[in-house]
Amino acid sequence: MSAAPSRGQVLNLYKQFIKNANQFNNYNFKEYFLRRSRESFRANSKIQDPVELAKVYRDAQFDLAVLKRQSIISQLYTFDKLVVEPVAEK
Amino acid sequence: MLKNTRTNGLLKTSYRVFGLQNVHPLKFYSSSAAATAVKKIADNISLETHTDIQAAAREQAEERSSAGNDSASNGVGGFTAPNALKHAYQENTGFGTRPIYLDMQATTPTDPRVLDTMLKFYTGLYGNPHSNTHAYGWETNKEIETAREHVAKLINADPKEIVFTSGATESNNMVVKGIARFYKKTKNHIITTRTEHKCVLEAARAMINEGFEVTFLNVNEDGLIDLEDLKKNIRPETCLISVMAVNNEIGVMQPIKEIGEICRKNKIFFHTDAAQAYGKVPLDVDKMNIDLMSISSHKIYGPKGIGALYVRRRPRVRLDPLLSGGGQERGLRSGTLAPPLVAGFGEAARLMKQEYDADVAHITRLSKKLMDNLLALEHTTLNGSSKHRYPGCVNVSFAYVEGESLLMALRDIALSSGSACTSASLEPSYVLHALGKDDALAHSSIRFGIGRFTTEDEVDYVIKAIVERVKYLRELSPLWEMVQEGIDLNSIKWSGH
Ligand SMILES: Cc1ncc(COP(=O)(O)O)c(C=O)c1O
Predict the structure, then answer these.
(1) Which CATH number fits domain B112-354: 3.30.450.40, 3.40.640.10, 3.40.630.10, 3.40.50.300?
(2) Measured between CB atoms, which of A68, A78, A89 is closest to B48?
(3) Where are the beta strands (DSSP E) in B369-426?
(4) Which of A41, B142, B301, B481 is most deeply buried (CB count within 10 A of its CB)?
């Protein structure tokens, strides 16, 4: 059993989630993972039980690995920007 | 036992490659390494895939400039051709060109987490899950059983009751034809509804040719069946009642629990086509007395080409299989399973459970916003019950606007009209007809599908676009002019069209 994470560790994990979500090239996936990262970290901040917290922290690391791999893939296969996405003039 | 430990050992090795076991994931995926890997590729090769809307926009621009030359002769009622086109398709400079996807009932985008699960089957785990003499078979077989558990859990079923198929179309055919054929010696009657998906209707029609009688129940103006009508149509020879859970065109939810009770009381098998409902509304095969359920993976952010059929084991439901062969899937569906698709489907089901509350809250909020704003337009109606519905499907009729021309005018939004089923035909939807809508209203209907990945910005864009273009198209319509002048359209004799 791993110990409950420190505040700094959780904050660091959160930053990684946001950073990797932002790397999605696909607009809908990017927005979704940003929204869900914010929501779930906010919801999980209420957890007091150290055992549960340790479990949530471990699961989140698994999810982060998925996010890292998939944000790379999203950059490999890209599509036109959506009509709601601003494009920078080249 | 030996088989298990060996399988585990192997899987552990294969996972280590992904950095999920002993290696700390953060360390393994040091962000700088990931960033450089991406940067290299992004700089050297252009992989952008263009939507054909770009070609369409170019074509349109050419058309417009040539039309502009003789605009004087084209000018009808103040609207010149180039002017009309400009209104029909707005170009926002500084923004992208790919349409917003709002057709979630047709299919949903594959969730990246689902793709992540699938990729390892295309890169290393290629064993045949039915090979039980070696590790390649064991490792894929283990993943398939995990997927089966995820699919079963969402509807409170036992994993053994899940049969993987190619999709809901196959599952529906399996049930309607398989049950009827198995019990044909003693029973010859099937009950279904007029608003089912085409695959149920056509399968039922095929059984008429095999000597069965089929009752197609009517629905009321809300799209719901009448339970008394159902009871009246039950005969001693009825072997199957098939009623869909959520309708794919209007999102209406039938009283599944009540229908299940009636079926169980009369000892008739109850099948529900839950392609649009699975994972999106609460379903429990025991509480609702469901004997058979069709499920589709690509409606829940999973891969296309895979689905499942739930077949109750106690009391046992028996059916003739469609396919003869090696006897896989309890002998009900022979043929080698596709592990990438099955595992992706399983992960999609797991996510539907995990994300249920978040998805429901998000979709309900966006759906309410969309509905409130669209229905604020005059002469606009919501099709189907406003109470018994899945919020992710909003079907609206815009009177005095031709649905197809509205769709043509909305090339920046991927939508479908009410008659989406066979999109090539311009026939008005049989579902809306069943609700008692006339041709004109059925023709002016549009279905909006909202999902997990839809954003608020997209919904805002859609509201603005629809409101503007409905108003514009109505201005062009002579009917609308008459309505504004207070002429009762019903008093006019129309010649056939
Ligand atoms: C209610 C309903 N049933 C069946 C299907 C067909 O599903 P599949 O594409 O998995 O064969 C669909 C989707 O089009 C549907 O909406």
Answers:
(1) 3.40.640.10
(2) A78
(3) 380-382, 393-398, 413-414, 416-417
(4) B301
